[in-house]
Amino acid sequence: IKTTINQCSGNIDFLDVGTGSGVWSILVCKNIGAKRVVGIDKSSRAIQMARKNAEKNCVSFELRHEFYNMNSAPHASAKAISLNPPYHLYPTEIEMTVPQHGRGGIDGQQVFREQLCTANYHLANDGIIIFNQMCLGKDDRPAFLDYIPHLIQGSSITYANIFEPMDTANFLKRVYEDRFLEYQQSISSKYPQLFLCDGIIKKDGRQNITRVQHG
């Protein structure tokens, strides 16, 4: 993030989408010295807590209560964007009972894909998007590796598995037990693996994919 902010052109150093407690924005302000940091969240309670946490950490940055949209920032203005969308998996019949912070869609990736489309408009050339996602996949490959290059054109992806891939069928069985069996079967047969990853998307025109191994 520090390297990107120092080398990339743009009016916003760090755009924190779904800032929550404000932790990313606070870290960037304290440790990197970013000049313009903007944190947004659809939850008014999150914005209130982020403001309190910023004060406790003796930093100041712009906070807005809003849904992330095209008007959240000017075109190609953000050097670094943090996306923190929900990724919980669930059948459609219980969607409205899932808390908003967990409501990621049937495959857990709906909000992430929507935010990537918007971030593509805001991201400066050679800018980066950082993300944390639980993602379905197969053949030791999370599904976001297939759709990110289409949504952030000309981008490279660097990612790491936080845990070893999980068995999707076992995960869904542990969550839902004997409920929603048709949903469990449909999802796990199409995507037999479940990943939890950290990643960086860079708009560099190179289209490289790199998995970082760690111990």
Based on Cα principal axes, name the global outline: globular
Give the averaged pLDDT, no decimals: 95
Structural class: alpha/beta
Rg result: 18 Å
Helix content: 25-40%
Q: Enumerate the spans where pLDDT stays under 50 for 5 or more consecutive residues.
A: none
Number of DSSP helices?
7
Number of strands: 10
- Which sheet architecture does the biggest sheet show? 10 strands, mixed
Q: Summarize the helix and strand pattern as letters.
A: HEHEHEEHEEHEEHHEE
Instruction: Estimate the strand proportion.
Output: 25-35%
Give the terminus-to-terminus CA distance: 23 Å
What would your notes on this structure say?
This protein has 215 residues and is of the alpha/beta class. Helices cover 32% and strands 28% of the residues. It contains 7 helices and 10 strands. It has helices at 2-7, 23-32, 44-56, 110-122, 144-151, 168-176, 181-190, and strands at 12-17, 37-41, 62-65, 78-83, 123-138, 141-142, 156-161, 166-167, 193-202, 209-211. Strands 1, 2, 3, 4, 5, 6, 7, 8, 9 and 10 form a 10-stranded mixed beta sheet that branches. Helix 4 (110-122) links the parallel strand 4 and strand 5 (123-138). Helix 6 (168-176) packs antiparallel against helix 7 (181-190).
